[in-house]
Specification:
binds guanosine-5'-triphosphate; six-stranded mixed sheet; Rossmann fold; binds magnesium ion
Length: about 210
């Protein structure tokens, strides 16, 4: 079982759901004003796991703007993990996951052991009473089940004020990436849709 693994992690979702802020919180532990992402950006971070292993995550931040959708879909290729983001207070962003992003993942993400996470962002707005939820939890669970996403891969985060929610998400992702690398992932598990998995040696691993 390798001590270190490298994995490509891609964020996708509607414009303004908070993809860039989520990455900034995780990678730099900051929350600052962002500009809309143009094209794609990229960062890496090494995560030490509780069992002594570590995963270096290559994190790709895609643009949610409509005009970049074809490009964003292109960047999903080769991902070990996709984080499909919606804004907890914006129903349209949730709908876009099922209408656009999860089908796209099922089409293009055929890396061995690939898994998709569904992440509701801006939890602070809900917890602090500024906005109400745009989607009931049961609906999120049902949508995830319809699309082959495990209930344990559904998270709610706040990049603004609940740092621990972001840490919990990425800790789980890093652990999943290490598992896949360590147990001889043979492509038998593809968590979204019916894409045919690649053999292990075809898996796109950065690093
Ligand atoms: N309250 C709150 N606002 C947030 C949070 N995350 C992001 N925002 C705000 O949401 C807006 C959009 O955030 P971005 O991270 O730029 O969104 P994005 O998904 O990267 O957008 P695109 O790059 O255009 O696809 C900004 O005004 C952020 O300040 C959060 O956790 N809580
Ligand atoms: Mg962005």
């Amino acid at each position: 079982m390798p001590e270190e693994t490298d994995a490509k992690v891609v964020l996708c979702g509607k414009q303004d759901v908070g993809k860039t802020c989520l990455i900034n919180r995780f990678v730099h532990n900051t929350f600052c004003e962002t500009s809309t992402t143009i094209g794609c950006s990229f960062a890496t971070k090494r995560v030490a796991l509780r069992d002594g292993r570590a995963s270096t995550l290559a994190i790709w931040d895609t643009a949610g703007q409509e005009r970049f959708h074809a490009l964003s879909a292109y960047y999903l290729r080769g991902a070990r993990v996709a984080i499909a983001c919606y804004d907890l207070t914006d129903r349209a962003s949730f709908q876009e996951l099922e209408d656009r992003w999860l089908p796209e993942l099922s089409k293009v993400c055929d890396t061995a052991g690939f898994r998709a996470f569904v992440v509701g962002t801006k939890l602070d707005l809900v917890l602090d009473g500024f906005c109400s939820r745009g989607v009931a939890r049961e609906e999120v669970l049902a949508m995830a089940a319809r699309n082959g996403v495990d209930a344990s891969d559904i998270f709610e985060t706040s990049a603004k004020s609940k740092v621990e929610t972001v840490e919990a998400l990425f800790e789980r992702i890093a652990a999943c990436c290490a598992e896949g690398a360590g147990d001889g992932a043979d492509g038998s598990t593809v968590r979204v849709g019916g894409a045919v998995p690649r053999r292990k040696d075809e898996c796109c691993v950065l690093g």
